[in-house]
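Q: What structure does this chain adopt?
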Amino acid sequence: MTAMGQSPERVFIGLGTNLGADLDRNLREAIEALRRLPETHVVRVSSFLSSAPWGVTDQPRFLNAVAEIRTQLEPLPLLRALKTLETELGRLPTYRWGPRSIDFDIILYGTRVVDLPELQIPHPHYREREFVLRPLAEIAPEL
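A:
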């Protein structure tokens, strides 16, 4: 946790979904789930963007967005909370870059750099992904 009295960190979360009958609903439910995270406030969310799969291309198109949040959660507790939300929202294990009902990625966490086996911030591939860059530019053009 951040020391009491410190300002919450400005964090950008990538959201993606390509499984289910209503991808819009999947993203709306994921955004509502973000709003329930402790010590966290959703500031703004980008428009939803349909995109081709990245990495493994033989799967349905994705619907993506980026959310800006302010949080007191440190990076690893935030990652654990997001993984819990994915499970609660119906994500089942598949293969890397495979289809999923919901995916949360920590794109940027303030100005921090994290390089751990389970978490890299900034997200190592975000600069290669139009489905992250376009929504991020929409809500935070100064970045």
